[in-house]
Amino acid sequence: MDAKALNAFLAEDFSQVAPEFSVTRITDHGLVVRLAVGDRHLRPGGTVSGPTMFALADLAIYCAILSRIGKVALAVTTNASMDFMRKPEAGRDLRAECRLLKLGRNLAVADALIFSEGAEPPVARAAMTYAIPPR
């Protein structure tokens, strides 16, 4: 699936969050997803919440897998680890750069670095494993 097909899939099957996320680029090893950060994503202290960053990483990795295997809505997260490294500032969108590390018949393993727009060092890192249902 290309970026246009992934964005259409999100709009159709995940309409509750699709307006906030957009797949902006497919790469040789993964993809890039942007999150339009709004007031609902913020926590006290003027920073983006951890659950928001987790959602971005999870969605980015899910889309990276679908970009290779096609529309498989029931691929699910089976393991996740997240490191929050820096405070992402309010008022800046987030970008997840996702890399597929292994794509097998039953499992996919990937990582994602999350960046706050305009800042060079990543604000978070996620590693996730997905179960791919039998076809």
TrEMBL record:
Residue span, Thioesterase domain: 45-118
Chain segments annotated as transmembrane: none
Keyword Hydrolase: yes
Annotated GO MF terms: acyl-CoA hydrolase activity
Pfam families, per the entry: 4HBT (PF03061)
Superkingdom in the source lineage: Bacteria
UniProt keyword annotations, A-Z: Hydrolase
Protein name: Thioesterase
